[in-house]
Amino acid sequence: MAPHRTRHGGQVIAVTNPDTDKPVKQPRPVRKLSKRLDVARQLHDLEQDAALDIVEIERLRVSVTRCLWLFLAIGSVFTTTGVQDFLAGHLTPADPVWWGCWGVEPCLVGILITILRWEAAMIAREIAIDSKAVDWLKRFLLGSTLVMNVVPAIMPRQGGISAGMLAAHFMVPILVFFLAEVMPIVQARCTQARRAITLPTNTPAPAPIPAPGLAPAPVTVPAVVTEPAAPAPVPVAAPAPVEVPASIPVPRVEPTSDAVAEPPALDGLGIPPGMQAQIRRLVADLDRPVTAVDIQQATRLPASIASKVADRFTPATANGYTH
Fold first, then answer.
1. How many helices, marked H, and strands, marked E, lie in the chain?
2. Which residue, of 47, 63, 82, is where some domain finishes?
3. pTM of this prediction?
4. Quick check: is 300 in a domain?
5. DSSP letters of 142-202?
6. What is the b/e burial string over 60-70, where b = at least 16 CB atoms within 10 angstroms of the residue's CB?
7. Domain count, the chain
8. Per the domain annotation, does 251 fall within a domain?
9. Which residues are CB-contacts of 27 (< 8 A; sequence separation ≥ 6)?
10. What are 135-168's pLDDT values in tens digits?
11. In this predicted model, what pLDDT tens digit does every residue of 13-52 receive, in sequence order?
């Protein structure tokens, strides 16, 4: 019998032998090609993700910043020698000032880089820098480095003027300044590009709608209608007693069973008149005493109000005793 192949998405993921029901080992070229196809599909899915752009921008920023730092350090070493030569003059290494002159240029370059990094953070947040003090500080740092590098080349202490050294001492300070100026701009633009990428948000799934019949029926509480209070009865003077002769017996009226009892009033419970009429029809149609469950099923009244209504329609002897 032919082996059974299990497919998923058009790809064979398992081959089993129908006789032994054990997986059959695929040929090596098939396994290698399957692995390559899996890697290709995973790469394709990752390339469609918008977060990949953020990763690429961050890698570009790190790479460019490292290169700029390297060239800035090389240019700062050259300008440091020019500044030290300008400040040290005819001093010898035996003088501590000769050694201190080596730290002047790194100090100037460090201040310049710190200011430009702060400007980069403000640019990334679209905050304008309109302070003239910042511009004058940068110009002073550039001018100081440029002057201290160019003067020794123009007025050498030994020998004549070298055109190459003059050009180098003139260009390298300007190059260092612009490198320090470009570095924060690169970081700011990369930050802006990274923040401009919008990642898709996972919207929460809508709440499932319960099937009909599972959820309990909502209990509708009728609005409480306050009926106007009945006017107080006007006191009526009692009639004068009539003397009846002893010889004439007074007839006694016995209550008959055919007398119809007047339905009880439902005032004070907040039940609308229309619902009161519905309750009375329900009581009249039943051949037994009405209960709170009957009233609640017919009118959807709360259990507490339905119990009070049922108590009013229950005869006095329903509980086995007379009030």
1. 9, 2
2. 47
3. 0.46
4. yes
5. HHHHHHHHHHHHHS-SSS---HHHHHHHHHHHHHHHHHHHHHHHHHHHHHHHHHH--PPP-
6. ebeeeeeebee
7. 3
8. no
9. none
10. 899 889 888 989 998 888 888 877 777 888 888 8
11. 555 656 666 666 788 888 888 888 888 888 877 777 777 8
